[in-house]
TrEMBL record, chains A, B, C, D:
CDD domains: AdoMet_MTases. This is Polyamine aminopropyltransferase. It comes from the Archaea. Residues 3-238 form the PABS domain. GO terms for biological process: spermidine biosynthetic process. One of its GO terms (molecular function) is spermidine synthase activity. Homodimer or homotetramer. The active site is at 157 (proton acceptor). It comes from Infirmifilum uzonense. InterPro entries: PABS, PABS_CS, SAM-dependent_MTases_sf, Spermi_synthase, Spermidine_synt_N, Spermidine_synt_N_sf. SUPFAM superfamilies: S-adenosyl-L-methionine-dependent methyltransferases. The lineage of its organism: Archaea, Thermoproteota, Thermoprotei, Thermofilales, Thermofilaceae. S-methyl-5'-thioadenosine binds at residues 32, 107, 139-140, 166. Catalyzes the irreversible transfer of a propylamine group from the amino donor S-adenosylmethioninamine (decarboxy-AdoMet) to putrescine (1,4-diaminobutane) to yield spermidine. Its EC number is 2.5.1.16.
Length: 303, 303, 303, 303
């Protein structure tokens, strides 16, 4: 029986607990509590403010699913912006596309990125040293609003829109409009869109909100063991529906990279939303705006 | 913060905990500890000896996935045997096939079935009263070894092969040979095959074992939220590969029933085993036999 | 490793968890959630709204310590009022004093008392059937304000003054003044006074409040294993300081009863408050009044 | 709701959990897992292999109670041996006696002592730097068997005799005989004697074993909040019964030191064992020997 446990409060009446074999780092950056630990079941795990962000065991399922649908939807992604993604694994996946010439990664938390560089080499695998990468430590929203650069793909690898945190702003219509302004004409954006089980409301509302801004929007999901649930994503594009990409192109482009999870069958199934879920989603018609934003309950933000 | 919690020990260093709003029943039958409770996240849940067997919220994902691939693999299932499945939900799904004329359900634990009849109407939905059903309370292994009846489909809805429990015997080559003997010439059997995450060894070994006995064997899996992981199944057939069934037939037969989860896309994806999982599975070459059976560690069987 | 656990939240960052061998009763009365269960370490335990009220293993330490100092402080207690104490164990201890002629027990929760009668015979030991007992189901505060009877001893065996619960009123100066009015001229009252560790503030403030009303007030405490801490009590008397009772009288009167915990040495040590505790107590000068009542944080009152 | 929790398994069906505000150190020395963390309720805590050894909040209760009865029982303690006690707090208390000329402290775990020096200044308060102190890193048993020095007082501040750990040997008759050999003619030894609640058997058996070796033996206990129970100690002396010391001498010698817990009343009550505990103790007649040692179940020694 383990002695030190990390508890993820999925709601006030549900939790998942990880026995910790050893704490590698535990402390507070300017923005959040960071815990890096060896868990009993998922190897090394990065926890931020009470939740696993990714695990050595299965981070590739999350990161491959976040990155590649957006990248493949763009015919030739050359310039990519990543907001968040401090572990460096989103960056690692982006760099696998050989069309990529320049990646800007903006993370507000420099201390977190330093910790990742030091303690999470299995994640970034040296990606931060790639000459195509420009790493900025600042508020992603501010960057997007001020930059004069244009991007083919924008990837939002963010924490959830928890009530009373600045993250709430990064899921609003106004923010997505700002993102659209810095996209090239075949531009694509993707955002993580929370758990489809614990926050089916958020998953739905993020889709609703994107549809106010982009002509093509697709919600998708993948099961990530370390999240105990299917995880949602939402993609918005200007000129090509992700579901209209020829099968042959998907296969060819996936094959060019050495992926652990996303093969063509898994790729196709990402976009399958089962009937029982669709029925639940019908209830949520909200659009997230600055005035009436999507906000999630802060189950475990006390410590 | 909840006060009463049900803890599922997924390993000595990982657990999932359910806040319990109210205990509906907690006690011991001759065979096991039965707890029926209203949980915070999954509605009413049936727990046996420390693990959720099925939840009001998503039992249909498990039961549809257990029952229909086997039923559809048989061209015209008329006679069906269910071993286990005390909740009555497996029975409910079997009865949705209008070719079915006779179902024998054998469960060793009469007290459990009585509790299910009383407290779990959302599961069985009156299935026990269907005139096609014959309900027997006895050891399933003994029934299979002694019966003179033949079946089109045999469904093994069992608890896991935990060390030092009689369930171990129901996952051996010898047992599957006994099952094969009571199958008709187009016969199909299916068994639950444990969690693909926590017990990838068991999942693999059950497949290995079936392949010693049946000409066609397919492993498949589905994500069940209340199990926090994808759940495995193994199907063994005498004359038709489940993957050879024409798409049209799958669609037609699924459409005839009112299912909540299994649509044709979900059905196809059941059989997708991702590359990273296949790599893990290569390590396990054991066949489970009476002499050298598959046995899982009893994390939480003390109470 | 246990599967069903009762969690007592001692603070948002501390808890004690009891493995539950079997739930005997779990449900809601009109006033509270009642759970009666066999625990791993304390035998049968009665939990109310998230906290152990008393355990088969050591309820006698609490009940003997609550009842006898007050009873012994009165020279000849004949008429006794108990408010709360649904288990019947406080009643049982009062009846051990052979001077007692009439006991009125007032508990607001009739369903709880019925459950205690049925499931907690080890506590009440038939006390409810004693002909000296008058059992009333009503609000204790209302009873005290309206009754025309007078009592020698009033025992307040209450739940803690949790914010937003009616219990808050039963720890105010105004309430203690009402109690004083129904006491005879040698009258004594005692109240449970919360944990001296978790609520040293409450323990102190209850003492402060009593001192506004009674000429003699003594705080005391005893270690109760099932509470993981020393438990506090406060006694207020009209004409005799509990510490002025001759040793001989204490010995004689204790000896006349068959007690499991309170021998003369343990009795004397009840009133010992160590230096480090006294230093903490200096900080709390509040008096609890209707206008500015003592209120404790409701750690676990959601369910 | 906390996210990182330290769980002390008091039995397979009881635990106490501490919300951890920050992990200061977590790692393995050659001998044990050491976790130093800021807890929600007890300030900084040192945990070894799953159990709180002492807390900033109340370590003085434990250390004062361990050290001073033995020291006071000796008329003029000049030479003192401490085995264990890596935090340095036992040493700190010993040095408060101004008769002390030389203290040998032997701890097997040098890394632990280094961690204590660095992270636990509130415990040792510089005691390691006192010129009277000789600090040795070696096996305490070996030291006692080989040394030619003699001591007035020997203090055994050890971890519990957990099955399959070397600590088991330090609670046997043979070991106590070795201790006796290095005592001067008025010599006194004291050992921690486990929890009186969780291990009343161990508490009793340690007393039984000492009585085989020493003419005067007294068991005593004190409530330590961070241990959720009364903690036991056992004292063995060659020439003076601890209970025969004149009250005046106890008062005078206690007063000479600046103690937070042990005043004369608290001191007297240490030796009070209540009737219900005495009754439980009658069951345990074992003497711990090399052949048949006292061994406690290792609830949580897996990690």
């Amino acid at each position: 029986m383990g002695v030190l446990w990390y508890t993820e409060w999925l709601s006030p009446l549900e939790a998942h607990v990880h026995g910790i074999k050893e704490v590698i780092f535990d402390g507070w950056t300017k923005y959040q509590r960071v815990t890096i630990a060896k868990t009993g079941s998922f190897g090394k795990v990065l926890f931020l403010d009470g939740y696993a962000q990714s695990s050595e065991y299965d981070e590739f399922i999350y990161h491959e699913s976040l990155v590649h649908p957006a990248m493949i939807t763009h015919p030739t992604p050359r310039k990519v912006l990543i907001v968040g993604g401090g572990e460096g694994a989103t960056l690692r996946e982006v760099l696998k596309h050989d069309t990529v010439e320049h990646v800007v990664m903006v993370d507000i938390d420099q201390e977190l990125v330093e910790l990742a560089k030091k303690y999470l080499p299995e994640w970034h695998k040296g990606a931060f040293d790639d000459p195509r990468v420009e790493l900025l430590f600042m508020d992603g929203k501010e960057y997007i609003e001020k930059t004069r650069e244009k991007f083919d793909v924008v990837i939002l690898d963010l924490t959830d829109p928890i009530k009373d945190t600045p993250g709430v702003l990064l899921y609003t219509r106004e923010f997505y409009e700002a993102v659209k302004k810095i996209l090239n004409k075949e531009g694509v954006m993707v955002t993580q869109a929370t758990s489809t089980r614990y926050y089916i409301n958020a998953f739905t509302i993020i889709g609703n909100t994107l549809r106010e801004v982009f002509p093509y929007v697709r919600l998708y999901k993948v099961f990530v063991p370390a999240f105990y649930s299917e995880w949602g994503f939402a993609i918005g594009t200007i000129s090509r529906d992700p579901l209209s990409i020829p099968q042959e192109e998907v296969k060819r482009r996936l094959k060019a990279m050495d992926l652990k999870y996303l093969d063509p069958e898994a790729y196709a199934f990402l976009f399958h939303i089962p009937r029982y879920m669709l029925e639940k989603m019908k209830k949520y018609t909200q659009v997230s705006t600055l005035e009436n934003p999507l906000e999630l309950a802060p189950w475990n933000h006390q410590t």
